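Tokens help. Our protein:
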Amino acid sequence: MPDLTPGNDDADVAAVNSLRSAVMRLGRRLKHQRVDESLSPTEMSVLGTLAQCGQATPGELARKEHVQPPSMTRIVALLEAKGLVRLEPHPDDRRQKVVSQTEEAEAMLEESRRKRNAWLASLAEGLNEDEWAKLRAAAPVLEKLAHL
């Protein structure tokens, strides 16, 4: 693994700096492509996590979203009040609840994905074939970074 502290390989440091800047800028621009402006980015992220894992306890969601459990409890309560998640008793531990998304949340997430994908596809139209090939090759690496 490269040592990216200043004074080491300038090309690696420059690449990390460029990646950070590009990811941040692209992320900000993607946030403007939301379907439902009433949801915070964190609420959208929780719904996305539920879409991937199906269901989870609030504690599991807190770990996956890198927030404190009391914060996740508040987020889940807000999403439940908006009709986007439902809480059910945990099958093995009645002291816990299991959170799952509603059909309304599934439809909203699908529309959000469609809108954001269309926006990104329109940007990608400005790439040449070599750049597009590099982007396809980089996508799994960026996905891995996002989940480390």
Remarks:
- The two ends are 14 Å apart (CA to CA).
